[in-house]
Write a structure and sequence with these properties.
By secondary structure, the chain is an alpha/beta fold. The protein is 26% helix and 24% strand. The protein contains eleven helices and 17 strands. Strands 1-2-3-6-7-8-10-12-13-14-15-16-17 form a 13-stranded parallel β-sheet. Strands 4-5 form a two-stranded antiparallel sheet. A two-stranded parallel sheet has the order 9-11. Helix 9 links the parallel strand 15 and strand 16. The longest helix is centred in the C-terminal third of the chain and has 15 residues.
């Protein structure tokens, strides 16, 4: 019987070789890669390893600078003062009012050395305006437009400066996230910034602030893959064709113009995953929807209540999505109506291809009212490929059952 060759043990370094010599034997490119992946505090601590390492961390390209909340501003100043190479990521999750002016200096320094990913969250403050206290926000320094290496820009609770004349966009920007960001000069600047950033793939806009809520503006981003828009009011937003779109999440709760709703949803026709929060209405909001959603595989709907008009809206959208596989519905409070469920109206929605590809249905906040029961019955009858149908009762319904059980025991 042949014996397997003995395994060789790894050769250990000679005890005469110092740790510094071992480090020096590693190629500089690999050392820089290692240092660039360390938290800034650990990277700075390598300065004690040897004389050659005393200032090495300062010149490592694309270092990650993530500052925990409460980091002394002097520490940030000291690190940035010694940086001579581009920064991979600069992240500060809480900038208080006392550090607003310092943040301008940080941004100036980052613009001079280059930064690829920038996340800044500012604390807004209240200021007396006559007899009222009004919220005020920090105006971001205009040197943000000099950060041309930016690939990710994520801003929270600040104001955005007007675009300088001749600004050609951020050529490397792939992700733009703005939450509670104000545009005192209007959203035309945001429109121009998005359209001029040709590499943009992910866009997130939440609760933007603007001087004129009726301003009309357009998202033009031919390479956009993911889009999220959420606001307490109608942005006056229009969407251009998005041929590369894969996933979209849109909050339409405060839209009142039916045609605007139809137009916005129609522009999302290339998406594979679609999440919509629908507004309160007693009308079928999607009756005019004619766009085909052939790529749509997963649809999530958050609707205020379950009534006939809501069911018809669901049918109109699903009918135009022949390849839909997953349907997720979250219901709001039940709206009481005098008339009973019109079965004829539901039967009129029957079609050979309706729900033909549907494999999973999930309903949340169910109260077992007549409309919900009619919808469940309809899906079970039409979805021949259905594999999963999950139903989650509303908390109000569960509390009622618990109270009823206690009453019966008593």
């Amino acid at each position: 019987m042949a014996t397997s060759p003995a395994r060789r043990r790894p050769r250990l370094p000679s005890p005469d070789i110092s740790a510094a010599e071992i480090l020096d034997s590693i190629p500089p490119a690999i050392l820089d890669e290692i240092l660039s992946r360390l938290p800034i505090r650990d990277a700075a601590r390598t300065s004690v390893l040897s004389r050659a390492w005393r200032r090495r961390w300062e010149s490592v390209p694309y270092l990650v600078l993530r500052w925990p909340r409460g980091t002394p501003s002097a520490s940030i100043d000291a690190v940035l003062a010694h940086r001579t190479c581009p920064v991979s990521e600069f992240r500060h999750p809480y900038i208080p009012e006392a550090e607003f002016r310092l943040s301008d200096l940080w941004l100036l320094r980052l613009a001079s050395v280059g930064v690829q990913s920038l996340y800044l969250k500012f604390k807004w403050f209240e200021k007396a305006d006559g007899i009222f206290m009004t919220p005020h926000f920090h105006m971001l320094h205009s040197c943000i437009f000099s950060c041309l290496q930016l690939a990710v820009l994520d801003l929270v609770t600040c104001d955005f400066p007007g675009l300088p004349s001749g600004f050609a966009g951020f050529p490397n920007l792939t992700t733009l996230s703005l939450s509670e960001v104000g545009f005192p000069r209007g959203l035309g600047g945001l429109e121009a910034m998005i359209s001029s950033s040709s590499s943009l793939q992910r866009l997130r806009l939440e609760d933007l602030r603007m001087p004129d809520e009726d301003e009309q503006w357009v998202i033009h981003a031919p390479n956009l893959q993911r889009l999220l828009i959420s606001s307490e009011f109608d942005y006056g937003l229009q969407i251009d064709d998005l041929p590369a779109l894969e996933e979209a999440e849109i909050n339409l709760r405060d839209y009142v113009d039916v045609q605007e709703i139809v137009n916005l949803i129609s522009r999302l026709d290339q998406a594979r995953i679609l999440q919509l929060s629908m507004p309160f209405s007693m009308d079928n909001l999607l009756e005019g929807l004619s766009q085909s959603f052939v790529n749509l595989k997963s649809l999530s709907l958050d609707i205020p209540f379950c009534c006939l008009s809501c069911l018809l809206s669901i049918f109109y959208l699903v009918r135009n999505a022949p390849n839909l596989e997953v349907l997720d519905i979250k219901l709001g409070d039940y709206y009481e109506e005098d008339e009973e469920v019109d079965i004829d109206d539901l039967n009129a929605q029957r079609a050979d291809d309706l729900f033909s590809s549907l494999t999973s249905v999930h309903m949340k906040n169910v109260t077992w009212n007549l409309y919900e029961m009619a919808f469940i019955q309809f899906v079970l009858a039409e979805a021949r490929q259905l594999e999963v149908f999950s139903i989650h009762e509303s908390r109000r319904c569960l509390k009622f059952k618990a109270a009823l059980a206690v009453a019966e025991v008593a």
